Amino acid sequence: xxxxxxxxxxxxxxxxxxxxxxxxxxxxxxxxxxxxxxxxxxxxxxxxxxxxxxxxxxxxxxxxxxxxxxxxxxxxxxxxxxxxxxxxxxxxxxxxxxxxxxxxxxxxxxxxxxxxxxxxxxxxxxxxxxxxxxxxxxxxxxxxxxxxxxxxxxxxxxxxxxxxxxxxxxxxxxxxxxxxxxxxxxxxxxxxxxxxxxxxxxxxxxxxxxxxxxxxxxxxxxxxxxxxxxxxxxxxxxxxxxxxxxx
Length: 247
Fold this sequence. Notes:
By secondary structure, the chain is α+β, with helices and mostly antiparallel strands. β1 and β2 form a beta hairpin. The chain has a 4-stranded antiparallel sheet. The chain is built from 10 helices and 4 strands.
């Protein structure tokens, strides 16, 4: 599989190697084996220990049996959420689930992957494998819906990007708004895109975004302020604070 390069919110370039198709297939086979061992063990123990009582409490025992099988149904969700994105099969093959930006997935992302996994297995068998083969990031449907991907764990390199290559703040720059340090990379990107917008509504977008940022960061409005200059200052301040973060 090819490597994927991403840039984090601290302007760190991370190169991650996507999990190969064979690695993911073998990991899934191992997970299926573990699920089969668990369900077989539960079934044998449960019915051998309760066979004489099942006829009298049939419904109760069916409910208990289904409850005992729930860990197998929620297998991927449980392990990936509590064990840093790795089911036992993935752990053995040194794979893990991450967001496409390199961050750790949220519970919502894991739930989406798991729900789509059930759909792929029960309704669309084989579609997940086809997606992994033809998707540039090796994503199955669940990954695409959740914004995740599977990578080789501990098989990546990272390096600090030279911010000057991106036209960032000059040495000696002094920021104006300390509150800007709390902005996310995506929020700063919205500011940059708004400033680069050349549509007829550019002034309107700049004014609206300026008001929202002042409200969000609790920055008082300036007298006779130029909103474009304000946004440009916000962007430069963000670049300044991002460039001073220690890696």
